Amino acid sequence: MKKLLLFYTKLSKQLDYFCNTLRNNYELICEDITKYKKFRLNSYDRIVVWIENFNNVLLDYLDNIHPVIILPKNLENANLDLLDEKLIYYAFGWNGLKLLKDERKDLYLLALLKLLINKSKGAILSKDFTKLKKYWLINRNRVKFSDNFFTHSIVEAIEEIYRKDALEQVIKIFSSFISTDIQAKRLSKLVASNFYPNLYERKLFFDISLLRVKEGGTGIHRVVKAQLNCFLENFTPKFRAEPSYITVENGKVTVKYAREFIKNYLKIQTNTLSDVPLLIREGDIYYLPDYYPLLTLEAYKSGFFDYLKFKKTKTVFLVYDLIPIKFPEYFPKRFNKIHEIWLKIVLETSDLIFTISNTVKEDILEFSKKKNLPFPEEKIKVLPLGAETEKAPNVTKVSEKEKEIIQKVSKEPFFLMVSTLEPRKGHFQVLKAFEILWKKGINVNLVIVGKEGWKVRKLVKHIKKHRFLGKHLFWFGYVSDELLKELYKRALALIAASEDEGFGLPIVEAFRNNTPVIARDIKVFREIAGDNAFFFENTKNPEVIANAIKTWLELYRKGLHPKPANLKQYKYTWENHCKLLIKYLTEI
């Protein structure tokens, strides 16, 4: 049987609930300290935990407890074999696990020392503490994080009260249990292998509910993955990013850590971290960059967002666009109603809203005013998207098969379209325009990258039966990041023909790959591209689009076409996006 002894003075209702919850879920034993030794801690309830055969699931329930750490006289010679990846995770998060390679033992030691170095996180009983601290200061640069990481902490004890004199009494009591170095070493191993000192930092719960079950190569998924990489590749001392997800199990909404997904995403081999329910505290942030409206609605009805407010946790949403509300005819039946309900939830529950353009921000403010759901304009932050296909850990080089694809589509100069096939994206109009060009003997290719969306059966059927499919017309439902980069680099120009967008990420990606852009003349494309794109009239007439492409070709041959944005001055990069994202989340 797993054993847990909770030593405490006064058993408050809060502690009673805490103990019973653990007992009911994990078959644990809770006993009163008076059976072992009577003492008072200046009238404050304090908990000290002594654990055997500890189940790692409990770490998420107990990491708010101030431990007393008992070390042997020489920690450097202690047996560290009992330590596992959990220690690295609790010390350095996913960043630490990524660094865990050949220097396994040293990194463990650094992690343990890091957890012990700030006395506000625990008391250390060791005559060699000064030596250990010096060892840490010399070696900590091997883990390249900001100094703020070591000093920053948000400590939340059960009673939210921490008194130095009380802790000193606990130290004194625990010292009486140890008479030999052997006992100290035994307790040190026990603590090191099963329990890691409190290192509570403000957490950013990064929701990947949809990404976890359904990955895609374009649109929102690319943004979510880019932001996820931002936190996995860049350390911020202000909070600790924890990917999470909302799920419905047996009719009940549950929110969990997305550890299994991240282990696979980062290709980290460990069996010690699993998907367990979140432990949310005051000051934390729950950020929803993914778009999963029906699941958001289930979470709302379950009271999840009310719970976040009760816990004084900040809620942040990312709104990509209001297109389903503005153009309901382009979406499945009732989708506009679903999107409207989702947006109302966003306005009602958010402490901060991100948008991807000023155009979307204006749309949100107009909607909130119309629906009598006022939201402070200053709490809507524009977060322009970046470009470059994201530097995902699992990206590979272009395969031999992909090289054949590149060679085939490049037999003639080609234009590129990157977006899911939807009515508003303008694929059908552009294809008809190219048919006009082909009929006139203009030998250019059209390459479409994007999966099949809704209400495009007619378009898909037309493409699949097209006489130029595989010759002048190419459609790829999904391509790797590396292949997409190559297509951008080799394309004559990107054609952005959407009738409405929240941002226009392909335009930015084209600029980052020094690819010219031909775009429909709509407000958001003007905002993003400025004078660096060739604009055609906002019309559904293929003749007009064909003439615009022909005009662009003439300008291109003379070198007079609008050039891509200067990369050195171009602000739409994932690096800038990441900096803004962290800045706004830090300030909330």
Automatic annotation (TrEMBL):
Q: What positions does the domain Glycosyl transferase family occupy?
A: 400-572
**GO MF term set:** glycosyltransferase activity
Instruction: Provide the alphabetized UniProt keywords.
Output: Glycosyltransferase, Transferase
Could you tell me which PANTHER family the record lists for this protein? GLYCOSYLTRANSFERASE WBBK-RELATED, MANNOSYLTRANSFERASE A
Q: What is this protein called?
A: Mannosyltransferase A
Q: Which gene encodes it?
A: mtfA
